[in-house]
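WARN no homologs supplied; continuing
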Amino acid sequence: MMPTLTKTASIVLMSVGALGLSGCATKKFVREQVATVSARVDALDSRLQNTDRVANTAASDAKAALAAAQAASGQAQANTQRLDQLSSRVDSIDQRVTTVENARVKRPRN
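OK structure emitted
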């Protein structure tokens, strides 16, 4: 019985040792895996920074365009008011000219 117990214990110890050693990752393996993931993260970070830069430029351009559009809208409103004032003045002058012309036509010449 002793030889089988010793053999069994040896087999069990060897199995446990083999499983224990095979379950651990080596430093080299971990570095390789981390390097791969790190390279992908760096590439994504670079793309994200480029996207942020483009988005900030677009936002800045949009703000400038909005400011220009608002200024143009204000100027258009001012021009519309000015045209309305001038239109009423022209109508008033036109009425006076028509009145003067009608008065001249009615007077007989001697």
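The mean pLDDT is 85.
OK
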